[in-house]
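Fold these two proteins, one after the other.
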Amino acid sequence: MHPLHRCRMNKSKLFLVILPLVLVSGAIGYFGVSWLTSDSMKSDSEASIAGAITYESGPFRVTVGINPEAPRVGDNQFTVKVADKQGTPVTGASIKAYGEMPAMGAMAAMRAPADLDEVEPGLYSGPLNLEMRGEWPLSLFIQTKGVGETRLGFDMATGRQGLSITSGGRPVANAMGGDKMAEGKSPEKNDRGFYEVGKYQIKVEVLGSGAMTRGDSMMGDKAMKAGDSSGKDAMMGGQTMGDGAAMMEDKNMSASMADEGGMMKGAPKSKSMSGQMSADTPDDMENMEGMKKGTAMMGGNNLLQVTVLGDNDQPVNGAAVRVAAQREAGDMHGGEAMSGMAGPSKSGERMVGRRNTDVVTLESAGEGVYRGMLRLPAEGDYALAVDVSTDKRGHGDLVLAFTTGEYGLRAATATPEGVAYYTCSMHSSVRKSEPGQCPICSMDLVPVTNEQVQSGVVTVDARRRQLIGVETGTAELRNMTKTIRAVGQVDFDERRIHNVTLKFDAWIGDLKADYVGTQVKKGEKLFSVYSPELLSAQQEYLETRQRLAARGPNDSLVRAARKRLMLWDISPAQVRAIERRGEPYEYLPIYAPASGTVVEKMINEGSHMNTGDTLLRIADLSTVWIDAEVYEADLPLIEKGMAADVTLPYGPQQTYQAKVDYIYPYLEGKTRTARIRLVLDNPSGALKPDMYAEVRLRADLGQRLMVPEDAVLVAGESRVVFKDMGEDGKLKPVRVQTGQRVEGWIEITQGLEPGDDVITSGNFLIAAEAKLKTGIEQW
């Protein structure tokens, strides 16, 4: 074989070997990148909702999170986890989420939508791009076919930690750090200090609080040595503290044990399931005596101990025990709230100005005993949530209340049964768990019941009703006749317009209809014409008729000559006149085809006209049209044959009766109006083309449920009516669907029943109170 051929064959074999390798490498690279991208997105999604609160909203349980936790200008990872009430992930949900910065001055409102994809069953995640710093209230809409739909609202701002719910949901029973951590009846404590919660007995103790040195921390470690290694971690702020670990990374972030008598040098170790303590040294015994007196929760680090018992007072081991504290909104001072918006501080402390602490998982420190460090961001009134969970017994949730600097933990719901909290009528952001006075205006706080929180019901007593001018009306069935007003213009009846033309070239002779506006009658002479062709045709007809007279008038040639004249619109009467005369007409008269008015004239005496030219236009004005424009929304109410009243602007005292004759099958693109045509008798000729006219149509809609128009409040896309419950001043906001509006009344198609009393005056003030007090969705 020739060396050149051998070389070419070797190159071909080499190419066939290399090509598959390149294709395989490319495929591995592509799928590898896709896998890494998918895995990265899933990881970001999980990070976004780590430790986030789960809310119950409509038929769903919804967990919402954002990464970073303090949203930034630019891209953020927004994640929504959706499950049903049994906790089963909801797949294929339609989710719409966006942040919206309100309009400010000349700057229009800005909307930042989240582009969400389902990264795993029930987990939806995607980027959320915020274009500038500031407040971006977040709206979330969830819809699933066959399950239902819901909407939630959250407070969101760049540089501010977390998302705080404003409407549409409430934390589920085991959601830590929610805005409403407890409702209903307070749990009762037995003589040993345990609360019975579900299948558990739970006791919570504060072992120490305040700021301590690293040396004291080591002594605390010694005191806890009877527990397992995780107990030491709880004291040292290691893995036990979760997010709180970073707060003890240097000597300034250690904790001390302070009681009524001063500094405490350590924390006791656990000896028994009841949480009783033993000591290894006399100093430890002295510390225990101090702890028996109780230790107050303080701003900063607090060492908590939770003892969990089951049946027959047996310790429950291996439980997941979590704690979190939530500060009441009324206790947040202006400076603290502002600092909370500024984002993380230089030292890494993220909690200044926050209402909720981080969720801390406690570590086992003995038989049924769990310990951990909880850091409070500031002094104030708090609710402490304790969540205990095991596979065998399920969840147990306990909510206690405390005030920093005061000894003892008490049941969180110190209000009467059914009361959620107390608030100020003038400052609804103030919320307390017991009666008192508003810290802003010193007014007495009023109760807000669980029913009000869940249903949006507010109570306005008779005195306050009189002060704000509340008036009521009734939803009632009324005969609804809607008057539709439109502007029209008089026009010719196109079916009564006649054009006068010729089918031959001619010259105009004697002109009778010599001006526009001439009134003519059918058969009346309009003008005469001279045409060589017409003259020749008359002569030919007369000669043929004379030559073939013996054959009679029905001879084919005679009939053909006569037909030629008639095809030129020479009437039979004119043909007979030619026969009687015995000679052709040089100027043949042309007669009016109909009675009417000459509205157009294109001829003069002696002018030449070509075949097909329009010479005169005659319009019968005894009947006219009115073309009127109506709004697109009114078009469904209009039908052919509907009666209408027509008036003229210069003579409104005169009303003309008309009927709808035709509805045009298109809209005017620029005005978005529809055209309708009315037919109107005009025997006197008072209505002249191009006159403007005012049209009123009456649509009889039958009986409809209606309320006074002032009763309906517009809230975005929603329409809300306050229903008077008639019980101690209770008012309930009801979302309604509206229909037609008629003379101060508006139709209600859904949401009310006949006889319902509604608020018609003062409802704006009631709405302001309701949306602050109860968080009505979509206000």
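Now the second one:
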Amino acid sequence: MMNDGLIEEVTGLMRQAAAELILPRYLQLETHEIDTKTSPTDLVTIADREAEEWLTPRLMEVLPGSVVVGEEAASADPSVLDRLSGEAPVWLVDPVDGTANFVEGKREFGVMVALVEGGLTRAGFIFAPVENVMAIAVRGEGATLDGEAIHGRKNVPFSEAFGDYSSKYVKPPLREHLSAAVLTSAGTSQKHCSAYAYLDCARGQIDYVLQFLMSPWDHAAGGLMVEEAGGALRFLDDGAAYHPVPRAPRAALACGDAEMWQTYREAVT
């Protein structure tokens, strides 16, 4: 299903959405163009909404018979998530991942798209507009960044590992436990952007990512990116591999080296 022509069409749409609808509002947002959803810190902007509305029909057009589950559409109507249980191929869309960073003028935000079929992520795309880099992962074919193969770092002990972890949404007592555990690694960042967390893990800039909120548009593309770069994304409680289905919050660990995943799991649990 995922051929070079379709990849080119999808990446072209992502670049166009960023160039025409997202970047023109970077550092230029007006107060009335910023809104909240579930809480005062759960932000959405005019760029999020317009980019998703623009991408949705075009993604369905490049793959006839497919449907779209977008973050903003699902926020407005949770029944949109039911499409993940249907027979049709599903495009998962996060039009501006890292919206708070986007609002604050930080560079760590991205456009994420994933193609899901039969409960598996078949392809994942992450575009970082400010950095102007495109990462692509196709199941069984590896991961690339601007056409060059990328790989996670290998054989890094947890004590020497760098990670991405934010305790913001983690519930006690797990929050206190994970926050203490990551102190035994070499360090963590809190970029508050899944697109950058997974991309940095896949390209070997960090070694692990700890996640808790499991909205599928936040993890499908990045999880496959890490896997195809030689890593793994699995749940901490039972070690099950991540699959993009609607689910309650649940701690998950991505590791840039699949062979080290269990070692890292033991270090944080």
